[in-house]
What we know:
The protein has 180 residues and is an alpha/beta fold. The chain has one domain (6-176): HUPs (Rossmann fold, 3-Layer(aba) Sandwich). It has 7 helices and 5 strands, in the order E-H-E-H-E-H-H-E-H-E-H-H. The chain has a 5-stranded parallel β-sheet with strand order 3-2-1-4-5, with helices on both faces. Helix 5 links the parallel strand 4 (104-107) and strand 5 (134-135). Helix 1 (14-26) packs across helix 6. The longest helix has 19 residues, at 81-99. It is globular. The relative contact order is 0.20.
Amino acid sequence: MKNEFNLLVHTCCAPCLTYMEKYFNEHDINYTSFFYNPNIHPYKEYEKRLETLKDFLIKRKVRLIHLPSFMQKKYEENKNNCDFCYENRLEITAKYAREHGFTHFTSTLFISPYQAHEQMKEICIKLAIKYKIKFYYNDFRPYFREGQSLAREANLYRQKYCGCINSYNSSKFKDKITWD
């Protein structure tokens, strides 16, 4: 039986959740996946990531909360998209967690070596105070490659860029990306 620790995990994509899901199970941590990612561009990519996550979670009998959130225009209008993106997604997660009875919140972004880890951590600490909820912190970056291997073994769709239009436009894989 899972303990009383009730964690809401902002989930950017299924591949980033794979190792964390394994870790949560090994440590008897009850969690719910929270898909709120208005930064993902284009809409077909948003759909692909969401469907992959749904399939992954159904097989594991993990609850998914999907907060419809495609609003790329708002992200294009912000000069420093990464800052806005972190603040927006993490704040919505913390607020939702508090309002819906979760004891803690975190994000799969903490497994990626490509994200601004310390900046996200600072944001989450401030949000924990603001919303009077606990921020569950763990530096999962050392397990990123293992998570990617788990995603490959599970035959999950693994995207080639962070999600926003800027990362899409700067991706070296841009010409090879399809949404079939």
